[in-house]
Amino acid sequence: MSQTQRLRDLPAVNEVLQHVTVDNLRQAHSHARVTEWTRSSIQSCRESVLAGKVASEQSLLDWVIHDIVARKEREVGRSLQSVINATGVVLHTNLGRSPLADRALERIQMASRYTNVELDLETGRRSKRGEHVMRLLTQLTGAEAALVVNNCAAATVLVLQATAAGREVIVSRGQLVEIGGGFRLPEVFQSSGVRLREVGTTNRTYLRDYEAAINDQTGAIIRVHRSNFHLSGFVTEPSIDEMALIERPEDVIVIDDLGSGCINELSEFGLHEPTVLESVRSGADVTLFSGDKLFGGPQAGILVGKARWIEQLSRHPLMRAVRVDKMTLAAMEATTELHLEGRAFAEIPTLKRIASSADVIEQRGRALREMLVQGERLHVVECESQVGGGSIPGSCLPSFGLQIQVTQPDRLAAELRRADTPIHGRVTDDALLLDFRTVADEELPAMAAALNAILPGFAWVVTP
Ligand SMILES: *Cc1c(COP(=O)(O)O)cnc(C)c1O
Predict the structure, then answer these.
(1) Is 150 a pocket residue for ligand 1 (Cβ < 6 Å)?
(2) Residue-wise pLDDT tens digits, 280-317
(3) How far is the CA of 289 from the centre of ligand 1 (A)?
(4) 153 CB less than 6 Å from ligand 1?
(5) Beta carbons of 63 and 69 less than 8 angstroms apart
(6) Average model confidence (pLDDT) across the chain
(7) Looking at ligand 1, which residue's alpha carbon is closest to its atom 1?
(8) Rounded to an integer, what distance in angstroms lies between the CA atom of residue 336 and that of residue 278?
(9) pLDDT average, residue stretch 233-258
(10) How confident is the model at residue 399 (pLDDT cuts 50, 70, 90)?
């Protein structure tokens, strides 16, 4: 039978909707949803027939019904769920960057009910949203004032729009970065209604380049931290300390976009990242950073700096569009407290993972191996973890992982992602590697259960 003749057997939408299996789906799902699955499955069936992928004796109605059920399973199971991060990338953008500290989770739960987010309990009057966390942030960073918005990109747009709209922003050509997801900072800047005034070259920008670019159109000078790539070799650019001292009219702001927002010195772990404290001390007017990178808190953009500028930002209409939710404020508050109490490395998961020693990680790997039926076939090997998430490019932290050498590591990775608690590892050197730096001890039993169920379906690579 020709494919065109075969296509005449494709069932019509109404016929499929009346089928008992599909009719049952309509008990739990809306008509519109079931109809959409039906149309998509009929379309897939058409494509499969044309590609010669449907056996000639198979009923197309059965094919479509089967596909609808599979489609429903995929879609209904696609909600947000906890994933075990076995990639070794501490701040994994696809896995939501920073996991939160227990104290932040408790505070979110509290805040999700009615809270005094804008109520002064002493006077019974309206208070300023986020007042408490702003105070904690100034105590932590030594800045005069602070502000929290939805993310660092929003902080950038707010500060530029509120201080330099319609005017020029001076930026070095070596700092025109793309921050992931295809977003380019220069374009984000321009969306706030400023004109870019690029200075210097990709590798070398001097203080005098900034100075020479200042004119009556200048609104801001911005330094963008290169969070996700390295520039090395014949390279120079002024420090933020030097930039803060550039002679300028008093309505020209100097902004430091730090991105990752490192509060704690990380050099003992071999990581070198400018800290928020250094930036504030340099005299930059406003310093911006993300709440969910090295700060280890919820998604947020934090602005700290001179009171005069922060007040100007807090009164700008855009502030209302980028203000954070009460649950974000609650999590920020708890995370900032942990930093202030010196408990960051003990209780903030992101920092705990960065600070984990290779010994502890190796122990964790061995503990999992013990729980596996086929454990003796597997090796706990040395590997390297990364900080990731647009911070500390090229960072390498010595770690340990379980190397699983099966003939189809990509299929194994896919099956682990479909486990009851999905596990996300990485495939390298034709093996699946599960890096234990980013795994918590409590997650080991779920990992073992998934591996014990899935591994028997795979063939081992035989090493001669
Ligand atoms: C990550 C980053 C941003 C964007 O921060 P989000 O919180 O993701 O919006 C902006 N600037 C720099 C330098 C960054 O590293």
Answers:
(1) no
(2) 999 999 999 999 999 999 999 999 999 999 999 999 99
(3) 7
(4) yes
(5) no
(6) 94
(7) 259
(8) 18
(9) 96
(10) very high
Once rounded to an integer, what is the mean pLDDT over residues 4-8?
87
Residue 459: predicted pLDDT? 93
- pTM metric for this prediction: 0.89
Atom 14 of ligand 1: nearest residue by CA position: 259
pLDDT of residue 464: 63
Residue with CA at minimum distance from ligand 1 atom 11: 259
Q: How many CA atoms lie within 13 A of 343 on its CB side?
A: 12
